[in-house]
Amino acid sequence: MSSSDTYHYAVSQLSWLFGSWEAIEAEVSYPTMDTLKYGELLEFQPAYLQPLIQYKSETWHPLKKQNLHIEVGFLKVDPDTQTVALLGAHNFGMTEVSEGVVKEHTLTLESKSVCRTSFTKLASVVKLVRTLSLVNEELHSLMLMETVNQPLQKHLECRYKRKLS
């Protein structure tokens, strides 16, 4: 894929994310829930000639195979900078705008805005901090979360391998 004909030059600094990633090891934990291993497919696709990358995450229970969480959105790159924004929507009724920077093969994002539907039963999320990094051909993901009831702490951790087409 060449940036000159298929995607905007600004997203080339995130080209290491492009494609589909399958969880090797994934765990969700938080003081208000039982720790759980889960499966996940994470996809990043550059938008044609725009400084955007579409992303989608689908997680499922490893034994029951039922969907747990779905998240869709965009990574928007500020051209000629290392600044990246995540615009995300979650299936349980939450949206987020997070911003951060990409340095080499690490993307770090911190929420600037978190909104939820009035009828979401989960405790309100106050802050999210995400890190995605490429280490020895594996994608590593870490998410920290703060709610109105809990301080900022680890919520999700996952290692992925690139899924071959």
Automatic annotation (TrEMBL):
Family annotation (InterPro entries): Calycin (IPR012674), Nitrobindin (IPR045165), THAP4-like_heme-bd (IPR014878)
Transmembrane segments: none
Gene3D superfamilies assigned: 2.40.128.20
Taxonomy, superkingdom: Eukaryota
Domain THAP4-like heme-binding: 11-162
Reaction catalysed by this enzyme: peroxynitrite = nitrate
PANTHER family: PEROXYNITRITE ISOMERASE THAP4 (PTHR15854:SF4), THAP4 PROTEIN (PTHR15854)
Protein name: THAP domain-containing protein 4
Species per Swiss-Prot/TrEMBL record: Stegodyphus mimosarum (African social velvet spider)
